[in-house]
Write a structure and sequence with these properties.
This protein has 141 residues and is an alpha+beta fold. The chain has helices at 22-73, 83-86; strands spanning 87-89, 98-106, 111-120, 123-132. The chain has a four-stranded antiparallel β-sheet. Strand 2 (98-106) and strand 3 (111-120) form a beta hairpin. The chain has a single domain, classed as Pantoate--beta-alanine Ligase, Chain: A,domain 2, CATH 3.30.1300. It is rod-shaped and about 120 Å long.
Length: 141
Amino acid sequence: MPVPWGSVVTKHRAGPEGGFTLLEVIAAVAILSLVVVAWLAAMGSELRVLARAEGLATATALAEDRLAAVALLGRDALPILPDSLRGGEFGEPFRGYRWETETRSLPGKDLVEVTVAVSGPAGRQALTTVFPSPGIVVRRR
C-alpha cells in the first residue's frame, strides 16, 4: 500500500530491543520511592534514639556528680541535707538540666538512702545509693 507523500512512517518492533513501557517505568519509580521513604524513616528514628541516649548519658553523669557531692559532705550531714544539695539547676554547658536530691532513713537497717534525680531535655534519670546512718561506727581494715 502506498504511503501518502509527507507522512512519517514508523515501525513498532516488538522484542528484546523494544525498551521499557511507561507503565514499567512508573512501577519502578514507585517501588524505588517506597524504599527511599522507608530508609529515611529508619534514619530519622535512629537519630532520635541517639539524641535521647546522649541526653540520658549526660543526665547520668550529672547525677553521679551530685551523689559524689553528697558523699563528700560526710554522713554526719545525713539524712538532712543543706539546701544547696537538695536541688537546683546546672549552669553552662548543662543549661536545661535540673536535679533533686531526696534522702530517707531505712528502718531497722541503720542506713540512709540517697536518691538524685536529674531531669533534662531527654527525660529523667535517677540514681540511688545508701550510706551508713550518722552515729554508726564504720571500721575499715
